[in-house]
């Protein structure tokens, strides 16, 4: 688990094809690895990766085909900057929100405009994630915990303060950039729980949940 508070910006030092997937070497910059051991998790642009080698100034991690298909890591190249966060501990301040490091989909930066000293971003999420994004709710963009200012369909607005622009990869975004999105995990589980016994049926999924389903199962008052 993570908090979405970025600890450092590193970069991709090497990307090596390995039997159909990829092994990454991430140089971690100012992120201390003194308390990291083999098998520990580190979020890279919001993707939870496992450290399989620790040379000293970074770590190697294997990236599966599933991760390549479901995230924007496939768009990275050697030299790309990445947000980094070590897994939280029982004593970690939860300054952001609970983040699993399991990316739900890839969004796209639609616009970036200066707003006094901050920046106003508009990001388009995949259509199937729109129902999980709520005004003043939390969302993770490339591993950064952010507050949603407003929502219009699958498009949501963010206000990015100067500190976040300086201390994360958001300062290097351009219009059209793909970004990893993780929605609030409570919303994801709540939707699944509302399915009740139907969740065990073959083919049951989030598409089963509708206003008629809620009414039929007593979740809505007539």
UniProtKB/TrEMBL annotation:
Lumazine-binding repeats lie at residues 1-97, 98-194. It is an enzyme of class 2 (transferase). One of its GO terms (molecular function) is riboflavin synthase activity. The keyword Repeat applies. Its EC number is 2.5.1.9. Keywords: Repeat, Riboflavin biosynthesis, Transferase. Pathway: Cofactor biosynthesis; riboflavin biosynthesis; riboflavin from 2-hydroxy-3-oxobutyl phosphate and 5-amino-6-(D-ribitylamino)uracil: step 2/2. The keyword Repeat applies. Catalyzes the dismutation of two molecules of 6,7-dimethyl-8-ribityllumazine, resulting in the formation of riboflavin and 5-amino-6-(D-ribitylamino)uracil. Homotrimer. This is Riboflavin synthase. It comes from Halopseudomonas laoshanensis.
């Amino acid at each position: 688990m993570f908090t979405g508070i970025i600890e450092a910006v590193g970069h991709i030092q090497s990307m090596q094809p390995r039997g159909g997937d990829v092994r990454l070497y991430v140089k971690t910059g100012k992120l201390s690895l003194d308390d990291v051991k083999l098998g520990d998790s580190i979020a890279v642009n919001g993707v939870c990766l496992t450290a399989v080698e620790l040379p000293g100034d970074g770590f190697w991690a294997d990236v599966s085909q599933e991760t390549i298909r479901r995230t924007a890591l496939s768009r990275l190249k050697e030299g790309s900057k990445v947000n980094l966060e070590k897994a939280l501990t029982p004593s970690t301040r939860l300054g952001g929100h609970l983040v699993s490091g399991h990316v739900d989909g890839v969004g796209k930066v639609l616009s970036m405009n200066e707003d006094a000293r901050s920046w106003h971003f508009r990001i388009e999420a995949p259509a199937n994630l729109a129902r999980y994004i709520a005004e003043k709710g939390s969302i993770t963009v490339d591993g950064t915990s952010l507050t949603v200012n407003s929502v219009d369909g699958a498009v949501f607005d963010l206000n990015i303060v100067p500190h976040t622009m300086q201390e994360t990869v958001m300062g290097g975004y351009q219009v059209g950039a793909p970004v990893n999105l993780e929605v609030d995990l409570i919303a994801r589980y709540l939707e699944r729980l509302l399915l009740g016994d139907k969740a065990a049926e073959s083919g049951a999924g989030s598409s089963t949940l509708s206003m008629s389903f809620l009414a039929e199962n007593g979740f809505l008052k007539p």
